[in-house]
Amino acid sequence: MDEQSTDEYTRLVAENGLALLFTNRVRARVVAALFYASEPLPVDRIAEGAGVDRTVVHEALDGLERFGILEIDRTEGRDPDRYALDESDDLTEALRAVAELATERYHQEEIDIPSDDE
């Protein structure tokens, strides 16, 4: 059996949609902030909620826009633009499910399982 070359799986990782979606932690934090928002948010509120600088939020939103998970309200005469997750999108739905499961598992307390001799 041939072993998969490092170059091959490195290329596969580099081209993987999940790796590209979350190229950096800021994108994940922006998505999480938008999950908890009850209304579309301007960049400054996203930055505040995500705990990051506004400049990196702009970069993250640009990257996330390519995946079609954002709703962007660019109302004429109103500044700034406001962002929300497109809740009708199947990728948004899947990301929400993964985020909820990951959060649940992260915060799950260890369960003491009694041994047979107890």
The parts where pLDDT drops under 50 for at least 5 residues are none
**Which topology does CATH recognise?**
Arc Repressor Mutant, subunit A
Query: What's the rounded overall pLDDT mean?
Result: 90
Overall, the morphology is globular
What is the class in the CATH system? Mainly Alpha
CATH superfamily: Winged helix-like DNA-binding domain superfamily/Winged helix DNA-binding domain
Total of DSSP H or I helical runs spanning 4+ residues: 6
What value does the Rg take, in angstroms? Answer: 19 Å
Largest sheet: 2 strands, antiparallel
| Alpha carbon gap, first and last residue | 47 Å
Description:
The structure is a single chain. The protein is mostly helical. The protein has a single domain, classed as Arc Repressor Mutant, subunit A. The chain contains six helices and two strands, in the order H-H-H-H-H-E-E-H. The protein has a two-stranded antiparallel sheet. Strand 1 and strand 2 form a beta hairpin. Helix 3 packs across helix 4 and helix 4 crosses helix 5. The protein is globular, with a radius of gyration of 19 Å.
Give a short overview.
The protein is mainly alpha-helical and 118 residues long. The chain contains six helices and two strands, in the order αααααββα. The chain has a single domain, classed as Orthogonal Bundle (Arc Repressor Mutant, subunit A).
